[in-house]
Amino acid sequence: NYQGLQTELNRRFRKGLFFQASYVYGKNLGEGGVARQPGNQQFMPELNSVGVTDRFNTRYDRGNLPGSRRNRVLLTALFPLPFGRERAVGNNWRGVRQAVLGGWELNTITLIQSGPYLTPFVGSDQSNTDVAGRGVSARPDRVRNGNLADPTPDQYFDKSAFVLVPTGAGRFGNSGEGILEGPGTIAIAAGMSKTFQLTEKSRLRLEGTFTNLPNHLNFLPPDVAVTSASFGKLTNVQSAENSGNRTGQVALRLDF
Length: 256
Known about the structure:
With 256 residues, this protein is mostly beta strands. 3% of the residues lie in helices and 36% in strands. It contains one helix and 14 strands, in the order E-E-E-E-H-E-E-E-E-E-E-E-E-E-E. Strands 1, 2, 3, 4, 5, 12, 13 and 14 form an eight-stranded antiparallel β-sheet that branches. The protein has a two-stranded antiparallel sheet with strand order 6-11. Strands 7-10 form a two-stranded antiparallel sheet. It is elongated and about 85 Å long.
């Protein structure tokens, strides 16, 4: 069950300035199971091979699905620099000055989104519910929220918010699906380009682009096994959606 609000703003100005901005606020609930293993949560499909925990109460497995983020902003912009022929500064430039300084354009694709939803689980079940025998991960009891107002890489979640179900209790833990929100993503890609008109039908385009321009650390979701010493610790970084380490490249393209 997906519900969301999407807004989009497009504007094209004179002189080639253009931007498009979109924002999505969404909530995606489902009973298909939530990805649990660290390193896979970012790419797991909505429905996976995780079985049903309680066939008499399938809503026990209903919660936020990891594939949809609560907030997502995407900005695309093209900004011709005001230097060179037919522009605000240097309209009469010729030769070397125009070739080196004139006619450049800046562009960006910027992504800002909140993190995926995660489900705490225990490494070994002692509650006598036999969930492990059905390929399902048991969940702990939740005594507090679990999400921290000011998380750090060493403590992104509150481990003390979860306790093990008593041995032989014969019941499932009360922790819900998708109750923890992982780290978000900030990825700013930018580039600068210039086109040289060689002949009437041919042109050369020079372009330099950078992904993750500020080299912002975008972490993968942490381990959510409450029995693990690495629970809630950010140890690995993302690589999808231009969110990995900053990279740069220069390209030449001939159109004819």
